[in-house]
C-alpha cells in the first residue's frame, strides 16, 4: 500500500526535530566547556588548569587554589556575588618528571617561627617558574610570631610588587590560635624530653597548613623549613626529575670547625633513615603512646641514617630507599597527600610527625626515597 504524501512529510519533520534535539543534548552534556577558562595543554596529557594561577578569586570561598582580594565595600543593601561554580578535571592534573615543561603547579609550605632573610633570599633564587609557585606559611601566636610576620610581610611587599615580573603566583599566611608551648631556641627545642610535645605541635601546624592551602590544581608540595638557607636554585626540578612519590635531600649545616680553623660541613637532619631490627624490637616493647626518636644517645636504634651515607664528591642522583624522612626539604607528589597521608600528631607505629608521615605514606603504597649526595643547608645558630 502506498504511503500518503502528508505522512512522508511528517516523518521527515520528525527526523529533523529528533536530530536537532539529540544535538542539543550532546552540546548540553559535553560541549559546554568554553565558558570555563582553561590553560592550554602544553603536551599530550598535560594538566589543564581551570583558572590561571595569576587570577584572583572573586569570592573567598571559591575557587580555593587562588588568592582572594577583598572587594570594595558594598553599598547599603547591595549583596556580594555568590561564589562561582568551578569544574576541576583531576585526571588532567599531571605530576611528571618534567614539571617545568608540563607547567605543573607547586605549593611550597613552610612552618615559620622565626624569619631568616637568607631563607627568603634562597627562595626567590629558585629557578622554577615563579608564576607556578604558590607559598604557604603558618606562624605561631605570640611576640616572636608577630615579629616573624612583620619581617615576612616586609619581604613579600618587595617581592610581590607589581613591577616585579618574577613574583610568586600567590602567598597565604596563617596565624595559629595558640602560642607555642616549647621554647624556640636551639638547645631547648632539641632536648629529648621536649620532642613528643614539640613534634606533635609541629604535626598539627603542618596539617593545618596543608589542608588549608592544597588546591585542586596543585601537582607538587615542597615542605621547606624556614631555617633552610641554601639550596641549589634548581632544587624543585632536580628532586622532581627522580619522579618519586616523596623524596628528600640530605640536610647539612655549614659551621666553623675550630680544629681546622676553617669552615666545614656537618650532618644536621637525622630523621631520614632505613629501619633496623633493633628499632623494630624496641617498638615491639613500647606502650601504645610511646614513640621512637632518632639521633639521641639515650635511645639507640642502630638505624642506617642517610646523614652518614653522604659523599660530598659522590653522584648527586644516587638514590636510597627510606623508611623515615625529615621535613627540612621534602618534595611530595600532591596525590600522596590527597590519598590521606598527613603528619600524625599521635604515635603512629611509634612514630610521629615527618617520620610518621613516611610510615603512613608507605601504608598507602607510596615509598620514600632519599638522595644522600644532594645537599641543602640549615642555618647555623
UniProtKB/TrEMBL annotation:
Coiled-coil spans in chain: none
GO molecular function: initiation-specific glycolipid 1,6-alpha-mannosyltransferase activity
One record GO biological process: cell wall mannoprotein biosynthetic process
Location(s) in or outside the cell: Golgi apparatus membrane
Transmembrane segments: 12-30
Chief site of localization: Golgi
InterPro entries named among the record's database cross-references: Mannan_Polymerase_Subunit, Nucleotide-diphossugar_trans
Example of a GO cellular component annotation carried by this entry: mannan polymerase complex
EC number: 2.4.1.232
Sorted UniProt keywords: Glycosyltransferase, Golgi apparatus, Membrane, Signal-anchor, Transferase, Transmembrane, Transmembrane helix
Keyword Transport: no
Membrane topology: Single-pass type II membrane protein
Family according to the record: Belongs to the ANP1/MMN9/VAN1 family.
This protein's name: Golgi mannosyltransferase complex subunit
Organism: Recurvomyces mirabilis
Gene name tied to this protein: MNN9
Amino acid at each position: 500500500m502506498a504511503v500518503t504524501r502528508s505522512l512522508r512529510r511528517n516523518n521527515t519533520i520528525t527526523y529533523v526535530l529528533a536530530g536537532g534535539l539529540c544535538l542539543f543534548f550532546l552540546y548540553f552534556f559535553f560541549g559546554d566547556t568554553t565558558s570555563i577558562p582553561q590553560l592550554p595543554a602544553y603536551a599530550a596529557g598535560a594538566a589543564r588548569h581551570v583558572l590561571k594561577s595569576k587570577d584572583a578569586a572573586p569570592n573567598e570561598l571559591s575557587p580555593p587554589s587562588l588568592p582572594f582580594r577583598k572587594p570594595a565595600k558594598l553599598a547599603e543593601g547591595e549583596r556580594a556575588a555568590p561564589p562561582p561554580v568551578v569544574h576541576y578535571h583531576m585526571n588532567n592534573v599531571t605530576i611528571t618528571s618534567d614539571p617545568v615543561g608540563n607547567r605543573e603547579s607547586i605549593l611550597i609550605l613552610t612552618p615559620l617561627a622565626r624569619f631568616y632573610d637568607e631563607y627568603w633570599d634562597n627562595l626567590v633564587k629558585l629557578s622554577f617558574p615563579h608564576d607556578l609557585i604558590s607559598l604557604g606559611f603558618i606562624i605561631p601566636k605570640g611576640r616572636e610570631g608577630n615579629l616573624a610576620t612583620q619581617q615576612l610581610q616586609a619581604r613579600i611587599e618587595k617581592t610581590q610588587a607589581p613591577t616585579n615580573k618574577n613574583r610568586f603566583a600567590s602567598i597565604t599566611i596563617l596565624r595559629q590560635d595558640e602560642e607555642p608551648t616549647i621554647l624556640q631556641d636551639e638547645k631547648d627545642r632539641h632536648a629529648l624530653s621536649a620532642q613528643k610535645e614539640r613534634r606533635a605541635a609541629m604535626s598539627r601546624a603542618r596539617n593545618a597548613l596543608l589542608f588549608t592551602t592544597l588546591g585542586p590544581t596543585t601537582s607538587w608540595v615542597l615542605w621547606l623549613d624556614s631555617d633552610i638557607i641554601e639550596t641549589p636554585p634548581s632544587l624543585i626540578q632536580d628532586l622532581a626529575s627522580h619522579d618519586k612519590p616523596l623524596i628528600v635531600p640530605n640536610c647539612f649545616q655549614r659551621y666553623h670547625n675550630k680544629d681546622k680553623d676553617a669552615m666545614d660541613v656537618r650532618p644536621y637532619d637525622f630523621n631520614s633513615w632505613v629501619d633496623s631490627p633493633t628499632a623494630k624490637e624496641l617498638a615491639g616493647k613500647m606502650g601504645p603512646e610511646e614513640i621512637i626518636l632518632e639521633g639521641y644517645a639515650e635511645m639507640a636504634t642502630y638505624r642506617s641514617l642517610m646523614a652518614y651515607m653522604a659523599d660530598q664528591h659522590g653522584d648527586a642522583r644516587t638514590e636510597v630507599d627510606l623508611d623515615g624522612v625529615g621535613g627540612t626539604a621534602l618534595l611530595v607528589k600532591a596525590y600522596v597527600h590527597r590519598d590521606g597521608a598527613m603528619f600524625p600528631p599521635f604515635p603512629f607505629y611509634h612514630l610521629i610527625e615527618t617520620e610518621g608521615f613516611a610510615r603512613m605514606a608507605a601504608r598507602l603504597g607510596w615509598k620514600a626515597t632519599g638522595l644522600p649526595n644532594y645537599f641543602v643547608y640549615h642555618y647555623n645558630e
